[in-house]
Amino acid sequence: MAINRDWQKSMQIKVDYNNMMAEFIGDEQGFTDKEISAAKKIADEAYKNVAANRGSGMMGWTELPYNQDEIVKDIIDTAKGIRKKFDNFVVLGIGGSALGPIAVFNALCHLRHNELPKKVRKAPKFYVEDNIDPERMDALFDILDLDKTMFNVITKSGATSETMSQYLIIIDKLKKKFGDKAGEHMIATTSAQKGNLIKIAKAEGFKTFYIPDGVGGRFSELSPVGLLSAAVLGIDIKAMLKGAAFMDKLCKAKDVKKNPALISALLQYLAMNKGKNISVMMPYADSLKYIADWYCQLWGESLGKAVDKDGNAVYAGQTPVKALGVTDQHSQIQLYREGPFDKVITIIAVENFRKETLISKGCEDFPDVSFLCGHTLSELINSERKATEYALTTAKRLNYTITLPEVNAFTIGELLYYFELETAYTGAMLNIDTFNQPGVEGGKNATYALFGRKGYEATKAEMENAPKKKSDYII
Amino acid sequence: MAINRDWQKSMQIKVDYNNMMAEFIGDEQGFTDKEISAAKKIADEAYKNVAANRGSGMMGWTELPYNQDEIVKDIIDTAKGIRKKFDNFVVLGIGGSALGPIAVFNALCHLRHNELPKKVRKAPKFYVEDNIDPERMDALFDILDLDKTMFNVITKSGATSETMSQYLIIIDKLKKKFGDKAGEHMIATTSAQKGNLIKIAKAEGFKTFYIPDGVGGRFSELSPVGLLSAAVLGIDIKAMLKGAAFMDKLCKAKDVKKNPALISALLQYLAMNKGKNISVMMPYADSLKYIADWYCQLWGESLGKAVDKDGNAVYAGQTPVKALGVTDQHSQIQLYREGPFDKVITIIAVENFRKETLISKGCEDFPDVSFLCGHTLSELINSERKATEYALTTAKRLNYTITLPEVNAFTIGELLYYFELETAYTGAMLNIDTFNQPGVEGGKNATYALFGRKGYEATKAEMENAPKKKSDYII
Questions:
Q1: Which terminus of chain B, N or C, has less C-beta within 10 A?
Q2: B174 with B245, same domain?
Q3: pLDDT-derived band of residue B363, with 50, 70 and 90 as boundaries?
C-alpha cells in the first residue's frame, strides 16, 4: 500500500461533536461556544502538560510511532518465521497485554479468521488467553496441536500471577513433549531489565521482545506487545504506526477547536463536571467491537483515581461501557434514550465497509419488510446509525461521532493513538496521575495472603480479623 | 440426571448480601437492618404486584417453567432430527432472540465447541447472527456449507428489520441452491397469529415454533426462542425449566429476607435512590460471560424508562455494565475501587468448576512466581474472587455475591429466572412499565424514514428540518 500524503489525508478520521452542543441538544444538556471558550485555559494547560511530558516518565508511549525501526524489522522477520512454521499463535497475557492484540486482530483480520481453511487464512489461528478459568484452559488444550503452536507470554513485570500461572502450566507441557526444544515454542515479551520473566527467558533461551519502561500496559498496543501478534497475522504494522504518527501530527494543533483529541477530552471533562459519570463506546461495525473493550481499560484504569496529584480525595473517573451498533439498539438504546441523563455516547462510524451484501427481494406482499429489499446491508447499518444519532439527539442525550473512512491498519493506528492522547489530556485536566493503578494492589495483596505467600502475613491477619459474615444475609 | 429433591437443594444458588450492609461496608455507603425494615412496605407491594400479575399481560414468562410439556416434546424431537442431519445451526435474531441463546450455549457447551472435531462435539456448530454488518454476513458465508446448515429465524413481530434482512438474504440463497427444498433449512420462531413471519412461514412450509403473546423478547429465553437451540446443542432443557421452577418456588417467600430475588431488588432499588446509577455484573467464570450480556438487556431495557405508570417524568434506570473476573481486575477494578461511589457490583461465583488444572512447578528461584506452584487454577480464580470482594469491601464499595454450586442446566435455569424476577420486582418498586420499550421506536422510525418507507414522510420531513450540522464542530 502506497501511503502518500493524499492517501493519508483521505484516511483521516473525523470527530463530529455537533450533538454535544446546546444548539443541537438543548441548553440544559449541551455545551455552548462560550463554555468551551471559558474552558480554554483548562485545555491549554492540559495541552502543555502533555507536550511537556511526552516521551518521558510513563509517557514513553508517545514516541512508539517514531522510535521502533529496528524493533519493527526484528518483529517482521520473526513473524515471517512463525507464519511458516506454526498453525496457532497463542498470547498469554491479561489486561493491556491482551486487549490491544484482541482489538487489532478483530479489526483487521477476517471476522471468522480461525474458522477459515488454512489456505485462505494464510496466517496462524490466533488465541488470546486472558483468564485463568480452569475450564477455559482445559478447553484450549482440547483443540491445540502443540507441535504447531507458538506461545507468546506477555507481562512487563514478569510477575503477573495469571499470566505466570499459564506460563508454568504450558512450559511444563512443552518440556514434557519437546524436551530441550521447548523454548522454540515460546516468545517472551517483557521488561528488558526488571522482573523474573526476562531472567527465565534468558535461562531458557527464548526469543524476547522488550516493553519500554515508560510504556504501561494499557498504552502498550503499539509496542512489541501488540505489534508481534499483528505481524504474525499479516497486518501491516508499519501502516499502523504511520496512522498513529498521522494522528499525533493532527493533535499538535494548539487550538482546542482544531485538535481532535483535545476537544474530545475537554467535552468529556466538562460532561463529567456536569455529572455524566458514564461513557458509552458504541462502534457500528463488528470489526471494531473489541476496540471498545480496549478503550474501557484505557479510560477506566487511567481516570478512575481516588486522589489527585495534590493528594486531595477526588474519586474521579467515568465508567466506560461497551456497546455495539446496531445490536445494542435492541438492548441498551431504550435506557440511553429514556433513562437518566448520565451519559456521553460515542458512536464510531465506518464510511466504507470492506464487503457488501444486497438485501434480496422476496416479500413484496409485506410492506413492513419489502421496503428493505434492494438496499444493501451497508445502507442499513449506516442508516440505523444515523437514526440512532437522531433519536439520541432529539431526546437531548449527549453524543458525538468518530468516523473512519474505512477500517485498515492506518486508521486503526490513528484511532488507538487518538484515544491514548484523549485519555492523557483528560487525566491532565482532572489533575490526576493517569498512568498508575494503585487500586489494583489491594486485590493482589489479598490473593497473595490467601495463597500464603511470604511477606503477606499482615494482610492475611487483617483478612482473618475482618467481621465474620452473617448467615442471615445469605439466602 | 436424576433431579430429586436433595439434589435440587444441593444445587440451590445463594445470594450473599453481607457487603451491601453498613456493618461490613460502613455507614455512609451501606444499608442497615433498620433501613430494610423501613422499606418492608415497598418490598411487600412489589411482591404483591408481581404475584397478582403473574401469568397475565406481559407476564406470561412466569409460567414458562410449567406450561410447555407439549412444546418441549416437539422441540426435543425436532432437535434430534437436526442433530442427525446438520453440521451447523444458525440463529437469525437480535436482542432477546440472540442474547439468551448465546448465554446458554456459552454456559453449557464446551468453551471451544465450534472448534472441536465433529466426533467430540456431537452437536452442530452454533452461530448467532445478531448484527447486519455486511462484513460479518459475508464472513459467515465464507465458512458455512449451506447443505449442512439449518437456520432458525426468530422475531416475535415478524417485522424486525435486521432479522428480516438476514432472512431475505438467506432464503434467497437457499432457494437458488435447493429450489423447493429450501424450506427444509429454515425454522421460524415467531408469534402464532401476529406479523408477517408466521404468514411467510406457512406459505413456505417452514417448521414453526411460537412465542407466546405475554412473553417479551428479553424474557423469552425459557420459551422456544431459547429452548430450540439449547436442545439442538444437547442441553437438558427439562432440567433448565426445573431449575427455573425451583427458583420460582424459593421466591414464593413473602418475607423479603427469605426471598432472594426480592431482597436483591430491594437493595438495588435503595441503592438507586442513593444515586448508584451503575450495576456491574461480574461473573468469575468464562462460561458465564454472556449471562452478563443477557442481563444487560434485561436490566437496561426493563428499567430505563422516562415516565412512571402515573405519567410522571422519572428518567429511571440503572446502567448495566458487564465485566469478567479475573480478566477485568486488570482493566476495571482500579476504577471500581477508587472512582466515584456510583456502583453496585454483583459478583457471580462458581463453587465447583467442571475441569481442573494444576499449576506446575518450575520457578523455584523466583518467590513472586513460585508461590503459585502446586495450587490449582480453581483455587487461583476463587481466591482472586474473594480477594476482589475483600478489596471492594475495604474500599466501601457496595457488592454482593451470587454463588452457583456448579454450572449446569438446572443452575442456569435458576439464575435466569432469578434475574427475571428481580427485574420484575425492581420495576414494580419504581412504579414503571417493566415490559415495554417505547424508546426504541424513535430510532426505528428514523430508519424507516431514511429508507423512504411509506407512512414515514412526517418523520422524514422532521429529520430534514433538523438544524444543519456545523462544519466547525467536525475536526
A1: N
A2: no
A3: confident
Q: What is the pLDDT of residues B422-431, one digit of tens each?
A: 999 999 999 9
- State the burial class of residue A454 (Cβ atoms within 10 Å of its Cβ: 0-12, 13-18, 19+): exposed
Is some CB atom of chain B closer than 8 A to the CB atom of A468? no
What residues are paired with B321 via a beta bridge? Answer: B280
Query: Any chain A CB within 8 A of the CB of B111?
Result: yes
For residue A330, indicate whether it is catalytic: yes
Give the residue, A1 or B329, on which the prediction is more confident.
B329
B354 touches chain A (CB under 8 A): yes
B278 and B130, same domain (yes or no): no
The predicted structure's pLDDT at residue A409: 98
Q: Do A339 and B171 touch (CB under 8 A)?
A: no
Cβ atoms < 10 Å from Cβ of B192: 12
Out of B168, B317, B386, closest to residue A360 by CB: B168
Say yes or no: A43 and A67 in one domain: no
B185 included as an active-site residue: no
> For position A404, which CATH number holds?
3.40.50.10490
Residue in chain B closest to A294 (alpha carbons) equals B331
Grid cell locating A412: 486503526
State residue B364's pLDDT score. 85
B370 located within any domain: yes
Model pTM greater than 0.95? yes
From the list B133, B259, B316, the residue facing A339 with the nearest CB is B316
How many CB atoms are closer than 10 A to CB A1? 11
Q: What ipTM goes with this model?
A: 0.98
Residue A375: active-site member:
no
B216 CB near a chain A CB, below 8 Å?
A: no
Considering the domain architecture, whether residues A349 and A365 belong to the same structural domain is answered as: yes
pLDDT digits (tens, 9 = 90+) for B234-253: 999 999 999 999 999 999 99
Minimal Cβ distance to B296: which of A297, A331, A383: A331
Q: Based on the structure, what is the number of domains in chain A? A: 2
Q: Which of B220, B326, B362 is nearest to A176 (CA)?
A: B362
